[in-house]
Amino acid sequence: MVASQSTDQVPSGVEVLFEEKQAKELSDKLSELPIADLKKAIALNDRLLC
Predict the structure, then answer these.
(1) Cα of 23 vs its chain's centroid, Å
(2) Along the 50 residues of the chain, how does pLDDT read in single tens digits?
(3) What local confidence, expressed as pLDDT, does residue 7 receive?
(4) Using an 8 Å Cβ cutoff, are 41 and 35 in contact?
(5) Burial class, 26, CB count within 10 angstroms (exposed 0-12 / middle 13-18 / buried 19+)
(6) Where are the alpha helices (DSSP H) in the chain?
């Protein structure tokens, strides 16, 4: 951003990066949640094959 521009002016392409999208599907909602226990989040097969 150029120093002469106001901080209120944001290029339109940048605004798209910070849009919050509403999760409609259950999988979308669950994917936004933080992982509380990493061992539970990793499937049994993934742990055995590593």
Answers:
(1) 11
(2) 555 555 577 777 788 777 777 878 888 888 888 988 888 888 877 777 76
(3) 58
(4) yes
(5) exposed
(6) 12-17, 26-32, 38-41, 44-49
